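Sequence design from tokenized structure. All designs in this work follow the same two-part layout: the structure record, then the generated sequence. An example of the structure record is given first.
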């Protein structure tokens, strides 16, 4: 099956060039919840968001006319991570995850890690600035939350 390709916007091209020379190309968000986020429902929610927003599971292809090429794999293995620790360790674990550089060209463009503490769950979301801006991150988190809520309530 041929991999799907998507157009690159002028903003994507500008962000690509800026990232080559100076700009940090990663946008981070950290969300706190009482313990209870389901790892399985989160993974399924992420999978659905990638179907709805396939550029997030794509790589940037530098060409005469650049484009996004969707990864052939539909797994979340390099997108969704999970770790446990005590509440005091969560902040350090979040910072360590944020510091881990993703491959801003090969993707995926989004990664997240659910950190489970004794009384707190922390969801760390990293999204490449190459394909999104701050408003896009907020929209993605809203989409992820909506899908998670629907799945957790048994709706599809």
């Amino acid at each position: 099956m041929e991999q799907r390709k998507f157009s690159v916007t002028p903003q994507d091209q500008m962000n690509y060039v800026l990232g080559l020379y100076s700009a940090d190309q990663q946008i981070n968000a950290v969300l706190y919840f009482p313990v209870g986020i389901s790892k399985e429902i989160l993974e399924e929610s992420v999978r659905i968001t990638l179907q709805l927003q396939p550029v997030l599971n794509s790589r940037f292809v530098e060409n005469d006319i650049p484009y996004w090429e969707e990864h052939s794999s539909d797994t979340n293995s390099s997108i969704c991570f999970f770790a446990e620790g005590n509440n005091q360790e969560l902040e350090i674990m979040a910072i360590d995850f944020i510091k881990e550089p993703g491959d801003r060209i090969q993707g995926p463009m989004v990664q997240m890690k659910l950190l489970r503490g004794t009384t707190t769950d922390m969801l760390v979301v990293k999204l490449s600035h190459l394909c999104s801006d701050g408003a896009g991150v907020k929209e993605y988190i809203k989409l992820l939350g909506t899908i998670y809520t629907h799945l957790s309530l048994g709706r599809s």
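Strands lie at 5-7, 26-34, 58-61, 67-70, 80-84, 110-116, 120-128. We note this feature because it recurs in several other targets discussed in the main text.
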